[in-house]
């Protein structure tokens, strides 16, 4: 049993030494493989990071484009409303101008009618005065003669 233990110990030592020697021989190879794998993992991570950054950039561009389109749509709607309001204002001003013109015309007609009536009244008054005063053959002449009585 002691021999078995001694043998197992020696075998373990031998295996450990051989593993150590093998590791020492292949150390550069292993380090190179580890570095290669690290570099590959790094490249993969960089590629994933670049893809994520590109995806985020595209998402931001899309969001900005959407915002610009919404702003453009709102601006066009406001411009349409402004044009409609300006048209309504112009229509209202035209109607007001027409109404004012009509009122001025009516006032002019009333004034002319008033002046015409005033002239008629004055003419009639002069005619009445002429009749009363007997001017201009408005009534026949009366002739008076005095006869002597005997």
What percentage of residues falls in helices of 4 or more residues? over 70%
Compute the number of helices. 1
Number of DSSP-assigned strands: 0
What's the pLDDT, averaged over the residues? 89
Name the beta content range: under 5%
Structure description:
This protein is mainly α and 150 residues long. The protein has one helix at 2-133. It has 1 helix and no strands. Helices cover 88% and strands 0% of the residues. Residues 114-150 are annotated as: Disordered. One of its GO terms (molecular function) is cadherin binding. InterPro entries: ARGLU1. It holds the Pfam family ARGLU. Belongs to the ARGLU1 family.
Short description:
This is Arginine and glutamate-rich protein 1-A-like. The protein is 88% helix and 0% strand.
Task: Please describe the structure with a list of short key phrases separated by commas or semicolons.
about 150 residues; cadherin binding; 1 helix; mainly alpha; ARGLU1; Arginine and glutamate-rich protein 1-A-like; about 90% helix
Strands, helices and their partners?
Elements: H1 2-133
Biased composition (Basic and acidic residues): 114-130
Organism: Sinocyclocheilus grahami (Dianchi golden-line fish)
InterPro entries: ARGLU1
């Amino acid at each position: 049993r002691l021999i078995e233990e001694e043998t197992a110990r020696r075998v373990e030592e031998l295996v450990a030494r051989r593993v150590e020697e093998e590791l020492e021989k292949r150390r550069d190879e292993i380090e190179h493989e580890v570095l290669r794998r690290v570099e590959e993992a790094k490249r993969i991570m960089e590629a994933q990071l670049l893809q994520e950054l590109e995806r985020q950039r595209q998402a931001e561009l899309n969001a900005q484009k959407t915002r610009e389109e919404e702003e453009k749509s709102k601006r066009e709607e406001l411009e349409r409303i402004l044009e409609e309001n300006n048209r309504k204002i112009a229509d209202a001003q035209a109607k007001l101008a027409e109404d004012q013109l009509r009122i001025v015309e009516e006032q002019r007609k009333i004034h002319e009618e008033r002046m015409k009536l005033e002239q008629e009244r004055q003419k009639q008054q002069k005619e009445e005065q002429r009749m009363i005063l007997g001017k201009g053959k408005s009534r026949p002449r009366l002739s008076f003669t005095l006869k002597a009585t005997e």
